[in-house]
Structure formats: C-alpha cells, structure tokens
Amino acid sequence: MNGELYLSRAKTRKYFIAAVLLFVLQMILGLLMSIQMVSRNTNLLFPFDIYKALHLNLMILWILLGFIGGLYYLLPGEVGRDIKHPRMIDFQFWFLILSGVGIIISEFFFTGANWWLVEGREYVEAGRFWDILLTIGLLTVVYNVGATVVGRKKEMSSPMIVLAWGAVGSILMYIPGEIWFNSLVAAEYFRWWVVHYWVEATFELIAAGIIALVLLSMTDVKRGIIEKYLAIEVALILLTGIIGQGHHYFWIGTPGFWLFLGGLFSALEPVPLFLMVWSAYKDLKENRKPIPNKVALYMIIGAALGNVLGAGVWGFMHTLPQVNFFTHGTQITASHAHFATPGTYLLLVLGIAYIAVPELAGKFSFSQYRGRIGFWVLVLGFMNMIIALVIAGIIQVYQQRMQGVSFMAVQNMLLPFYGWRTIGGVIALVGGIIVAYDLIVLSRPNTGGFIDETKEVKR
Amino acid sequence: MNNTKLMIIGLLVPALLLIPFSIISFYTDFANKNPDPLQVTVSFNGKNYDAVEGKKAFEQYQCMDCHTIVGNGAYFAPDLTRVYKRTGGNGASLAGIIQSGFPSKGMPPMRDRGMGNEDAYRLVAFLKYTDMLDTNGWPNNGSWDRDGGLDGTAAENIRPMGIWQVVAGIVFFNLIIFALVLAYERAKVGNKT
Ligand code: HEM
Ligand code: HEM
Ligand SMILES: [Fe+2]
Question: Whose CA is nearest to atom 29 of ligand 2?
C-alpha cells in the first residue's frame, strides 16, 4: 500500500497463497460432510467427525495465516522499518504448515487412539501436543511483531495499532481453551473464550483496523474522521462483545444471570457492525480519488456487509435467550456460522490477499475480471447455503423442539434442504477455485494477468 | 474524548466486570448448581468409573464432532446431554450402544476406534453427569431432546420427489440473486460512461 520497499514483504506472499489453497481444501471437506448428511449410509472413507474437525481446524489455520501474513505485510510501512527478524517469517510459515499437516494426519489415523494427538473438542480438536507446538509458534509471532514495533521509526497510525492488538489478542486467546478442567461446565466456559473472543472481539478488531487502513490508503477522506469512527467502533465492539460472551453461557450449566447479561449485551453487538458499514459507505461516497484495485474493494466492502448481515442480523436472530432456548444447537446455528464466518473473515483475508499479492508481483494494474466473477460466484453459493440451512433450522426447531419428533425423523424431513445446501456448496467451491486460481496467476511476476486499462475507466 | 482513552475504557470496563461474573460462575458450578464430576460414578463388574475419566474419553473419541453436548458441537447426531435419561438410566445398554454405534445412520462402531469396555463405562459415567447438570431448563419440556426415548427411526436417503419439491425454489432463488448482481454491475458501468 505504501510505496516504500521492505525486503521482508516478499516473504508474505506464501502466506496468502497457502491461505486460499487451504480454504479450497476446507470447502471440499465441507462438501464431503454435506454429502454424508444427504446420504448417511454412504461410506466416504472417514466418518463425519473427522471431516468436521478438519473443516474447522483448517479454517482456523488459514484465517491465522491470512492475518499473520497481512500483519507482516502492512507493519513495515507503518513503523518505518523492516520486520525485526525477517527469517522468522519463513520459519513461522513452515512451522504452521507442518503443524497443519500433523493435525491432518492425527485426525485421520489417531482419532480415539491418543488424547495427546486428538482432543476432539469442537474448534480445539488438535490434541495437546499440537496445541503446545502451535502456541509456541504463535507466541514467536507476537515476539517478532513486538520487537518490530519497539524499534519503530515513526508513530503507528491508530488502525495499525488496533490491527496489531487484534492479532496479538487472537494468539493469546488460544491459551485459555487449552486449560484442563474436570468439570464440563468450566471446560466449555473457557472453550468459548477461544471461539467467541476470536470472532466477536479480536478478529473483529482486525476487521475494523483493516477496513480503516484500506479506506485511509484508497480514499481521500480526512484521517481524523476515519480514526474517530474507528475508536468508537473498537470501544463498542469490546464493550458489547466481552460481556456478550454470555450468549454462550445460557444453557451450559452456568448461573441464570447470564441470561440477562448475555441477552442484553449480545443484542447490542450489531451496533458497532452497523457503524462500520455506515462509515465505510459515507467515506466512499465522499471520496473523489479513483480506486484502481476494485477486487480488493469488493472483498473489503463485502466483508463489512457480510459482517452486518451474517453476524449482526443472523446473530441477533437467535441471540435473545427466549429464542436461543429453542434454536440452540440446531441448523439455525449452522446457517449463522456459514453467513458470519465466510461473509466476514473469508472476504477479509481475500481482500488483504488481493491488495498484497498483485503488489508483491509488481502488478499495479491488472485484469480484475476473474476476481470479480469469483467474488460473485462465492456470494451466490453461500447465499444458497445460508437460506437452505435457515429453512432447515426452522423446520428442525418446530418439529424436534416443539413437537417432540425424534432426531432422525426430523433429519429425514430435512434431506431436500441438505441437498440444496450441497448445491450451494458446489457453487461456492467453484467460486473459491476461481479466486484461488486468479491469486496464483497474479502472484507470478510478469506472466498472466494482462494489463487492461480500458476496463478501469476512472469515475 | 481522546481516541486511545476511549478504546482503553471500552476494553477495561467489561474485562474488569467479567472477573466477578466468572468467579460466581465457577463458585456455583462447584458449590451447589452442578454435581462434582469426581463424585459421579457408575459401577460395572464391581469396579467404579467416574465422570472425569469419562470426559477425557468423550474428548478422545471425538463424540462432539457429530453430536452436541449442552447444545455445543455438531448437528449430525442428537444432543447427548440428556441421553442417559432417554435410555431410562440403563448404563449397560448405553455402553453397548456406544461400542456398536449405528453404522447405517453414520455412527461408526466405537470398537473400531479401539474402544474397550472400560472406556465405554467411563463414557456412561460422563453422560450420567451431564444428565445431572442444571442447564437452566434447556432442552425444553416437550422437546425430543429431553423427553424422547432412544431413536428407533432409520435414516432415509433423499428421494427424487423431495428433490423436485425444492428444485423450483432453488432455480427461482438463484435467478433473483443473479438478476440483482447483474443489475448492480450494469448500473456501475452506466455510471462510468
Ligand atoms: C463476525 C462475527 C461472528 C462470527 C464469525 C460468528 C460465528 C459463529 C459461529 C461459528 C457460531 C457457532 C458456534 C458453534 O459451533 O456452536 C456462532 C454461534 C452463535 N453466534 Fe455468532 N458469530 C459472529 C457474531 C455474532 C453476533 C454479533 C451475534 C449476536 C448478535 C452472534 C450470536 C451467536 C449466537 C447466539 C450463537 C450461539 C448459537 C447456539 O446457541 O447454538 N454471533 N457464531
Ligand atoms: C463448500 C462450502 C462449505 C460446505 C459445503 C460446508 C459444510 C459444512 C458442514 C456440513 C458443517 C457441519 C455442520 C454440522 O455440524 O452439522 C459445517 C460446519 C462449519 N463450517 Fe462449513 N462448509 C463450507 C464452507 C465453509 C467456510 C468457507 C467456512 C468459513 C470460512 C465454514 C465454516 C464453518 C463453521 C464455523 C462450522 C461450524 C458450525 C457450527 O458448529 O455451528 N464453512 N460446514
Ligand atoms: Fe458469540
């Protein structure tokens, strides 16, 4: 984004490429699961749980890869110096990839055999051994970022500070979920610290920081205005999100006061998300500067919209305890998960990738046709999935929770909607492959990605 | 107000509030709301198995990535919080179910993952413990998750009739989105010229 050249920047390219490839792999695993749900007696080589564990663990891995890559990419320009230990960037990358391979192998061959290799708790399925390795690896990232910031040559802008705190906080939040408790209640209490404090606090800070940074560098809106909005958003995200954790403490054996606290604060969580979209909309409207990198803008604005719809609206839909009492642990949750997570964090990672990858290859003007098609195909696929799952969820809540129909009888009723979800998944996979192919082509200097000025007529 | 101050207040106020809330949550878990998992045991063949060992087995065999427990996990298979009650408190039959699974519905026999009798008994102790948790009334009275019996329904495969019922909906839905996207992209081209 900034014109200066820092040698370590080139090292971040592999983070983005690995992230999109893992994303495609994650979608293939998701499709295998959804096929299993349509046809339960089909033998897909491995049972459902193994695919689900990998669907989630690879998702965590690529989101972290994307964010760490983005951090290393953006930081030098902001602090006016190169990363303190550039070789650690390579080392950390291969460390994370090797851990990922280890987790995949453990899931496939050691599930049930060894608790140190597979721990089997949703989102933190990776066994103790991998947890410890990953934590050490991620803490070295914290160290490298800290050492770079300490020796800074100029003051960091506030979006960068927010982004850095979000990334460091995400890494630290991996730790509470790993503490062993005898009580299931206490264990679940802290497992949610990983999941909820990631997606509704630290990742959200990263999102706010990146959206502000992009607006700062792409538009001519005054710095003071963007920074003021950012500060209000961050304060509100934390104010609502930290106690909003209570929406996961309604029914896990924790005291009843969480119904009040969780309901109240999580119902306010959409407010900063609306603010984020509104300020971006306002800034882009006032902006008079041409924006050449349209694909990145699509992804980033898509992330802001996905955030407000998937997290804000779809989250609000089932966050009040009176509603969550019935929808808890049904396909409604799955619908929200597939709106909020790809809608926000997938598009955010793709947005950073579309800023960094062409620039690292020296392409300041490139054909954006393929990227745009990929974006819309992804949107189309996920919209199908989300709607199919929400209908399935409503039927499930009504039949299973209100009418007392047995689980499998309800699943049989939902088969058409699982079929629809699978179709949505196939469409999304096509979009993902288009985007991944486009990014790989763009990452190669001087080949592919022809320059086409006519496509980018300035406003 | 200064931007940095605003953000720090946003962080500190709820973080400090969280400390007493967490302490109360832990205190009630230990003190009166829920049983102590070390004290919840089942006995088979004269030997006692407790819920803490059971929790570890529950994690090791990855039950949570098909089933939910206290409503968290995966939605491929039913919630297990109250399954002890659904079996009528019959530990031996529950242990048998876990070991032989339901291959035709998607649950592999846990014996295939090397589960012996001991781990199955531990899991029974764990499921007995989860049935005793005070979950503020969830799952609701009248839901199958609380009041049903063991699930005897067989899994069906998708039928052509079922597909056709939604195909029209899918096509219609996609055409709408497609039209919206097209309208959006066209309008932008229009702006430029
Ligand atoms: C970008 C932000 C967000 C992401 C990525 C996200 C993602 C998720 C995911 C993946 C789950 C499923 C957890 C599980 O496996 O059980 C979940 C659950 C939930 N989310 Fe969000 N979420 C976001 C924001 C929100 C917001 C703002 C709200 C409230 C307004 C909300 C309300 C809920 C609730 C109530 C549940 C629990 C569902 C249940 O009881 O089963 N989420 N979220
Ligand atoms: C081809 C596309 C995809 C398909 C077919 C798919 C399918 C699935 C299926 C079948 C599940 C299991 C639901 C259950 O537990 O019963 C699942 C869970 C999940 N997927 Fe996907 N998925 C896809 C893409 C993605 C992407 C791109 C993301 C995130 C970036 C994602 C995030 C999640 C999350 C967070 C869960 C856990 C939800 C929960 O437990 O509440 N999925 N997915
Ligand atoms: Fe949450």
Answer: A342
